[in-house]
Here is the input.
Amino acid sequence: MMTRRLRNSLIASLLVSAALASAGISDAAEVNLYSSRHYDTDEQLYSRFTEETGITVNRIEGDADELIERIRLEGEQSP
Here is the structure.
């Protein structure tokens, strides 16, 4: 049950991210996903998302603190 909820939340997050990423750019073909998750099932989810939407998922991985610091340092230059 928890796995299903987590999967659905991740799908929803990807869809929202893709929509926001492409809102200002009509030809957006990729979305950047900052994630501290490292599960094999995630790769299957990202691949399926790409197959269904044509949008490539670029994973930027690290632990939560590393990702927060990276986003903070990159500021508006963050991909």
Q: What stands out?
A: The domain at 2-77 is CATH 3.40.190.10 (D-Maltodextrin-Binding Protein; domain 2).
